[in-house]
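User: I'm curious what two different proteins look like when written out as structure tokens. Can you demonstrate?

Assistant: Sure. I'll show them one after the other, since each token string lines up with its own sequence. Here's the first protein:
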Amino acid sequence: MFYEVTIIKPKNKKKKIISSKELSDNYWADFENKQKLFSTKKNNVADIRKN
């Protein structure tokens, strides 16, 4: 479960609010990309650590 995140600039001004849906989508997209890299035959440990 992801909670809404508020990014605050100096002087307590809101810069951006990231919704829980956006956080979830980003997490799972990143997870799938890492799984694809892991499952390739030409897997290189340095490539996985880059991401």
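Here's a second, unrelated protein for contrast:
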Amino acid sequence: MRSATMVIDGMTCGGCVVSVKRVLERVPGVSDLQVEVGEARLTVDDALVTEAALRQSVERAGFEVEEVVWSNG
């Protein structure tokens, strides 16, 4: 398990936060999810999900992932 902070462009309101939270909640291997305007903090099971899958989920919701910062968790 690793922790990640995703810097997300295009989130401007509470509705955006809800949209990003909903898509990330559906990704297998994501836990301890906290989403605020501009970023998401989460714990990821590397055996179940890749960074590319996380990025694709957020981008399909209409937002751009600027950066993903990883730390061992």
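A detail about the second structure: The beta strands are 2-9, 30-36, 39-44, 64-72.
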